[in-house]
Amino acid sequence: MSANWRVSVDPHRCIGAGICAGTAPQHFQLVEGLSTPLAETVPPADPVIDAAESCPVEAITVHDSSDQRLIAPEP
Amino acid sequence: MTDSRQVTARPYPFAAPDRLHLDPHYAQLRRDQPLSRVQMPFGEEAWLATRHEDVRVVLGDARFSRALSVGRDEPRTTPRQQDLGMLAMDPPDHTRLRRLVAKAFTARRVELLRARAQQIADELVDELVKAGPPADLVEQFATPLPIQVICELLGVPFADRHNFHTWSEAIVSTTSLSGDQIQSYLENLWGYIGELVAVRRREPIDDLLGAMVRARDENEDRLTEEELVQLAAGLLAAGHETTVTQIPNFVYVLLEHPAELARLRADPGLVPSAVEELVRYVPLGAASAFPRYATEDIELGGVLVRAGEPVLPSVGSANRDGEVFTDPDRLDLGRDPNPHVGFGHGAHHCIGAQLARMELQVAIHTLVTRLPGLRLAVPEPELTWKSGLLVRGLAALPVTW
């Protein structure tokens, strides 16, 4: 059983392209034009990784919430 | 609430595109009928969304689907319904393909290409200056710059550009080519990419095409061979047809707005914001395209869009919405904020947006700083515009300096 993930969006990087909210609407929504995770801690789920890997400005980061290891995006 | 049975459809597009002018019908519809019924030359009736807020919902809300267009008589300006690959998919299928290449187009990776793009732009201007005015900016600057950049990124020989530039027109053609020509150009393009893929199978090459081939060969579930070829062909074609067209469009708009151009010349630091404003201001699309199908009944813009009905998002109209943009028909190169949807929105937001931004910034900065006397070499009414394409653009842009 893997640990939960911590999802965050850097509001200074986010350009509001809406790719994450369109790709993973169960995890991201746009608030006043910028992306916000619906929950900061989530059980592991592929769409969260997809969103982080698809962000054109790499504003989304996913960490392992137990050891803070970076899970996505890949460098 | 009004639904599709209670509204009469207008023919759409409202008129043939006139240079870069946005048809006045859009402003009227935004005010009076934000979702209206339209009938395109081909395909079924559709809703047309014209307000910024509604267009963003249609583009960004997962309840609107592109995949449902497959098998439907999609509203369109092309006689034949095209196989649009990634643009006819929804997440997670769409995400599976997009993720394979998205990394190469992040702002960070694109920034690494800026110096090379600048070098190419400088060399092109060196040649213009050496040969002396006049020159055709389409042929001698706007075409080779993005093509060389996408060639080097993908790993496609620049020397083959005349062939694939010709074939790429199939991707943006509505009536400029016959259905048979479109099909044969696409097959030529796919065949050509297929050969480049085969080369990479024999000997690994460290470019985007090579990375795509490795991704497939390491895990064949990730994409089929056909998807690999069509994805690469799509990147090559889309990677230059749009920017090749927008550079001359932007220069044209700047020359038509001398006060704004003078402002940019006085402060080239405005270039990034100028590019955003030009992306907003120039309605690149000749008409709305790629309708999204509602997957459930959705209230939008005061009407009830029923499950299974297509909605065309008008990006050009959204970008002129006075609810979002102050004085929306005015070109303001310092506009801030500028939440335009010129690169789309949502899952299908232009994958090459950061690359296009960088190339457009380099192109405009280079022309403004190195050719300060740049102006049209012919009277404006003599300029020739392309037609029968999804995009608006100049066939040639004769300039002097």
Automatic annotation (TrEMBL), chain A:
Cofactor(s) needed for function? [3Fe-4S] cluster
Lineage of origin: Bacteria, Bacillati, Actinomycetota, Actinomycetes, Micromonosporales
Q: Which Gene3D superfamilies match?
A: 3.30.70.20
Instruction: Give the protein's biological function.
Output: Ferredoxins are iron-sulfur proteins that transfer electrons in a wide variety of metabolic reactions.
PANTHER family, per database record: FERREDOXIN (PTHR36923:SF3)
All residue ranges annotated as the 4Fe-4S ferredoxin-type domain in the record: 5-33
InterPro entries recorded for this chain? Answer: 3Fe4S_ferredoxin, 4Fe4S_Fe-S-bd, Fe-S_cluster_ET
Any matching Pfam family: Fer4_13
- What SUPFAM superfamilies has UniProt attached to this entry? 4Fe-4S ferredoxins
Report keywords, A-Z. Answer: 3Fe-4S, Electron transport, Iron, Iron-sulfur, Metal-binding, Transport
Can you name this protein? Ferredoxin
TrEMBL record, chain B:
| Pfam families recorded | p450 (PF00067)
Q: Which family does it belong to?
A: Belongs to the cytochrome P450 family.
Q: What is this protein called?
A: Cytochrome P450
Q: What keywords is this UniProt entry annotated with?
A: Heme, Iron, Metal-binding, Monooxygenase, Oxidoreductase
